[in-house]
Amino acid sequence: MNDLKFREDDHAVRPAKSFALDRTGGKLMGVCSGIARYFGIDATWVRLGFVAGTLLGFGSFILIYLAIALIAD
Questions:
Q1: Letter string b/e over residues 37-71, b meaning 16 or more CB atoms within 10 A of that residue's CB
Q2: Which of 17, 60, 63, 66 is the most exposed place for a label (fewest CB within 10 A)?
Q3: SS3 assignment for 31-47
Q4: pLDDT bracket for residue 1 (50, 70, 90)
Q5: What is the torsion angle, in degrees rounded to the nearest 10, for the CA atoms of residue 66, residue 68, residue 71 and residue 73?
Q6: 22: left (phi over 0), alpha (psi -120 to 50) or beta
Q7: Nearest-10 Cα torsion for 24, 30, 33, 39
């Protein structure tokens, strides 16, 4: 017979990390700030990535930004 004792918290499930817009720290709609907080990086890098993606992707990142802003939260 197995004499191992388990505490109740041994099998506890951690809540999943969830994405949310950061309207207080955001500049426009809080999308870049929310992405930065989710991944733990500086929001400036995310904003620069969106600007570069918009310029190099012929404006497609504007649609992605708007989609995230409308779908999240």
A1: beeeeebeebbeebeebbeeeeeebeeebeebbee
A2: 17
A3: HHHHHHHHHCCCHHHHH
A4: low
A5: -120
A6: beta
A7: 120
Whether the pLDDT of residue 29 is over 60: the answer is yes
Alpha helices in the chain (DSSP H): 31-39, 43-56, 60-71
**pLDDT of the residue at 14:** 66
- Residue 33 · residue 72 · CB < 8 Å: no
* DSSP-assigned letter for residue 27: S
Q: Which of 34, 63, 60, 59 is nearest to 47 (CA)?
A: 34
